[in-house]
Structures are given as structure tokens and as C-alpha cells.
Design brief:
- Helix content is about 25%, strand content about 35%.
- The chain has a six-stranded mixed sheet with strand order 2-1-3-4-5-6. A five-stranded antiparallel sheet has the order 8-9-7-10-11, with helices on both faces.
- α2 packs parallel to α4.
- With about 230 residues, the chain is of the alpha+beta class.
- The protein is globular, with a radius of gyration of 18 Å.
């Protein structure tokens, strides 16, 4: 089947330049990471891999990542001043080069320290044209784009949990665009990722949180507002 492209796939994202991969994509990764953190971040350590590590200053990757962490979109005029804005907000920022293994050359790992002391780690890649792929949260391998409202559920890998969760989404008239299940070992912890066509009401999120076997949930809407529940293990 021939792939179809939209006009925005051709001309690229609306952004503050200079690079869709190194700037726009980086800002999106930072913003998604901030949503995953689910609380105020007081410190962020960025480990830059491959091409990111070689050109991040010249292409503004460092400023874009910090801008995203502050909640900015790629077209925000304040992106150029993100370092100063982070300093004013009392957020400690560090960058260093490092190898993250067999991953896309435009990959970054962000180790975020929340105000409650919890450390949340997110790894993501900028795969071209402003598109991104989140590949790891903490020690768990995941895969989602952030293009859709995204629900992440950690749970015990046991029969019935996935069925119960999908039934609650059906009852709330939530259409599932994509669904993936990741687990490291049978019978241990697993992660379900739902990318949906609409935002999920808070009432439904509360019901999902109460499902037996669910350790915690995070919901990442496409809009700037977010609802986030810390994952507990």
C-alpha cells in the first residue's frame, strides 16, 4: 500500500528553528518527559547520544529540551531564552555526552528529580520532521509517539487485567487508536500503552486506577493540560 502524506508531513512542523529533528523534536521530547514526571521538576540531567551529542549547542537542542521541560511547544518564542527561564524557576540543568546503546542517533535520556525527591527517567528519540518516539520510562521499554492522548498503565501481569481496563474504556466511549503491552517477565510487572482518539475523563481515570492489579497510571493528553498519577510499584 502506498503511504499517504499530509501537507504538514511535507513542509514540517511550525517551530522555532533551526532544525526540525534537533530543535522541534527535542522540544517535544522535553515536554512529554515533563508530563510523565507528573510533578514539578527541580533538576534535570540530559544525557545526549549520537548526533544530539555532537551538535546540540549549534542546533539549539539544549535550549529546546529545556523549553519542552518548561512546558513550551516547538513554536514558542520563549524557546531561545529557556535556559534563563529555567534558572529563574530554580531548576538545575546539566548536559553531558554519553552512549545509550543501539538507538536512534538523535536520542536523549532525561533524568528528572521532582520536588518530592523522586527521580523519573525518560528516554526519547527525534526521528525526523519534528516527530518523536518515547522508548523508555525508568527501566521499562515502551514505544509511543505522543501524537495521541496516551494512557500508560503499570500492572501485574495476570489474566483479566487488560480485559478489565479495555472494558472501562469501552464503557466511557473511548476509541483506542493503538495499544501495546510491554513486560520484562511473565507474571511480573507489565505496562499497557493506549493511544486514544480523545482525552480520557478524570472519572474514568479514577476507575482505572482502582482496578485490581493496577499499580498506577499516567495520562498524557495532547493539550497543554495534563492529569498524572504516579506509578507505584
Amino acid at each position: 500500500m502506498q503511504k499517504k502524506y499530509g501537507i504538514f508531513d511535507i513542509i514540517g512542523p511550525v517551530m522555532i528553528g533551526p532544525s526540525s529533528s534537533h530543535t522541534a523534536g527535542a522540544a517535544r521530547i522535553g515536554r512529554i518527559a515533563r508530563l510523565i514526571a507528573g510533578s514539578e521538576v527541580v533538576k534535570a540531567d540530559f544525557i545526549l547520544h549520537g548526533s544530539f551529542s555532537k551538535t546540540y549547542r549549534g542546533h539549539g537542542t539544549d535550549r529546546a529540551l529545556v523549553a519542552g521541560l518548561l512546558g513550551m511547544l516547538p513554536d514558542d518564542d520563549r524557546l531561545r531564552d529557556s535556559m534563563d527561564l529555567a534558572m529563574e524557576a530554580g531548576i538545575s540543568i546539566t548536559f553531558r555526552e554519553g552512549s545509550l546503546g543501539d538507538v536512534h542517533p538523535n536520542t536523549v535520556r532525561i533524568d528528572m528529580t521532582r520536588e518530592d525527591g523522586e527521580i523519573v527517567t525518560v528516554t526519547g528519540s527525534s526521528i525526523g520532521g519534528g516527530a518523536v518516539l518515547i522508548t523508555r520510562i525508568g527501566d521499562e521499554d515502551v514505544q509511543f509517539t505522543g501524537n495521541y492522548p496516551t494512557l500508560l498503565i503499570t500492572h501485574t501481569d495476570a489474566p483479566g487485567v487488560v480485559a478489565h481496563v479495555t472494558r472501562l474504556l469501552y464503557e466511557a466511549c473511548i476509541n483506542i487508536a493503538f495499544m501495546s503491552v510491554f513486560r520484562s517477565q511473565r507474571g511480573k510487572d507489565a505496562t499497557i500503552i493506549f493511544e486514544t482518539d480523545e482525552n480520557i475523563p478524570e472519572e474514568t481515570l479514577e476507575k482505572l486506577k482502582a482496578v485490581s492489579g493496577v499499580g498506577g497510571i499516567r495520562f498524557l493528553p495532547v493539550s497543554s493540560d495534563s492529569v498524572s498519577y504516579p506509578v507505584t510499584t
